[in-house]
Automatic annotation (TrEMBL):
The chain crosses the membrane at residues 43-62. Keywords: Membrane, Transmembrane, Transmembrane helix. Pfam families: Cupin_8. It comes from the Eukaryota. The keyword Mitochondrion does not apply. GO terms for molecular function: cis-regulatory region sequence-specific DNA binding. Residues 233-411 form the JmjC domain. This is JmjC domain-containing protein.
Length: 444
């Protein structure tokens, strides 16, 4: 037999992809090794035995079930997309996200992309990359579900990019919004200005790590009039999940982007889909709580105006983050929410000493940029000036398993009511087979 070595990247990658298919087949059906080798030999026209075995070993050493090639998705030219779901992660048993595994997948994909590019592409390992013109394939391989990224050429195409405070105030000034108000000293301007507002959350309290936080319903113009009065210990933040979704003319202002097009939440009946355009309009010094998103989805945050600072905590640090237990999100399906009692931008280290050990990546987000936050990452945003932004989320090939687990955790859908062959189905079928519609609507 003529022995040839693998000469170029394309061959290598093709073999890579075949090995991935082989592994996914391995999980579900017996393999006839001799037939398989004939097949590979015919198609690659090289002696693939040694490299194939080497690759097989490497894959098994990294993680025997890292790769699952899901054929039901549209494939790119060379069918190289590898997905991070595992054929052996049965929906019939609890699942937890493994950040180390995801980093291994990422680093293998980084090598692939470094080979594909003729130049050296640096991917950040301690910070966040700013990217434009990013292909969908590179997005799924390197970032989605694995590492945060800022995209700089998405938001500027949305009509919403032209929204201003004046525009919102002019058209919606009289409409009620949900607004968080913080007043550390209670005697500051804020408690006087909003003393007649409808209070949603009861007495001021230390809420989600923020001292003396109250949640109010106020006409938008009241917030707008008061934006200049912010103080480091006294500020306001419109955080309204429903304001945009309830106004189709505003909802339309948020353009489609290819990175969010695959969204399995759209398979849910409309009344069970999480609202997906949260209005975030905050004064200087305002901030979110430190939290991980409900459903553990991939979160997005598009800054229209202003600047945000972020602290993002890679998964696996729960012991340092002082996470509140048994809190529910209030979204349809009412999945758990995961909020910390620590304000990462002003932590009380005497009260929460373990927080010192938490490692985060810190960066600034500029107007016109959209941030993608992977499942499992705790995060907190701080508006260093008055800032207008919209957050959203997606459930796709890279996080659907994690999101389904969150839905199962709530317990409205019993795991043992799932069909026994659910693991053999495509992700879309699995999501639909949860039959969120029938199983939960009756019980909510
Ligand atoms: O911009 C912010 O305040 C953070 C919003 C956020 O983290 C979210 O919507 O999950």
């Amino acid at each position: 037999m003529k022995s040839t070595t693998i000469r170029n990247t394309q061959q290598l990658l093709k073999l890579n992809s075949m090995m991935a298919s082989l592994l996914s087949c391995y999980a579900s059906q017996p393999i006839k090794i001799s037939g398989l080798l004939d097949y590979l030999h015919k198609h690659l026209r090289v002696n693939i035995i040694i490299p194939a075995v080497t690759f097989g070993l490497v894959y098994f050493l990294v993680d025997p079930c890292l790769y699952h090639k899901i054929t039901s998705f549209p494939q790119t030219d060379d069918s190289l997309l590898l997905y991070q779901t595992s054929p052996r992660s049965s929906l019939l048993v609890p699942y937890s996200l493994n950040h180390d595994t995801l980093l291994k997948i990422r680093s293998i994909n980084v090598r692939k992309w470094q080979q594909l590019h003729q130049y050296e592409q640096e991917y950040s390992e301690m910070g966040v990359d700013r990217r434009n013109n990013l292909s969908l394939e590179e997005f799924f391989d390197i970032y989605d579900g694995k590492w945060p990224v800022l995209l700089t050429d998405v938001v500027d195409k949305w009509p919403a990019y032209n929204w201003t405070g004046d525009f919102l105030n002019q058209h919606y000034g009289q409409e009620q919004v949900v607004m968080k108000a913080i007043d550390y000293h209670l005697d500051a301007a804020i408690s006087r200005v909003f003393s007649d507002a409808y209070q949603i959350s009861g007495d001021p309290l230390d809420q989600d790590g923020l001292t003396n936080a109250i949640s109010l319903a106020v006409p938008l113009y009241r917030f707008y009039q008061n934006t200049e009065n912010a103080h480091p210990k006294s500020w306001t933040y419109v955080e309204d999940e429903l304001f945009i979704p309830m106004r189709p003319e505003l909802r339309k202002g948020i353009g489609n982007t290819e990175y969010l097009q695959e969204d399995f939440f759209q398979l849910f009946p409309e009344d069970l889909r999480p609202w997906n355009a949260m209005l975030l309009w905050g004064t200087k010094y305002s901030r979110s709580s430190l939290h991980m998103d409900p459903y553990n989805w991939t979160g997005t945050n598009a800054v229209i105006q202003g600047h945000k600072w972020w602290k993002l905590y890679p998964p696996g640090q729960d012991e340092y983050l002082y996470i509140m237990k048994d809190r529910r999100s209030g979204f349809p399906l009412n999945c758990y929410k995961y909020n910390s009692v620590v304000d990462a931008f002003d932590p009380d280290l005497t009260k929460y000493p373990r927080f010192k050990k938490a490692v985060s990546i810190v960066f600034e987000q500029l107007p016109g940029e959209i941030l993608f936050i992977p499942s499992g990452w705790f995060h907190q945003a701080y508006n260093s000036e008055e800032t207008l932004a919209i957050s959203s989320q997606v459930m796709n090939r890279n996080n659907y398993r994690v999101v389904l687990e969150e839905i199962l955790k709530v317990g409205d859908i019993q795991r043992d009511s799932l069909p026994s062959d659910i693991d053999l189905m495509s992700p879309e079928q699995q999501v639909a087979m949860h039959d969120i519609a029938k199983l939960s609507v009756h019980q909510i």
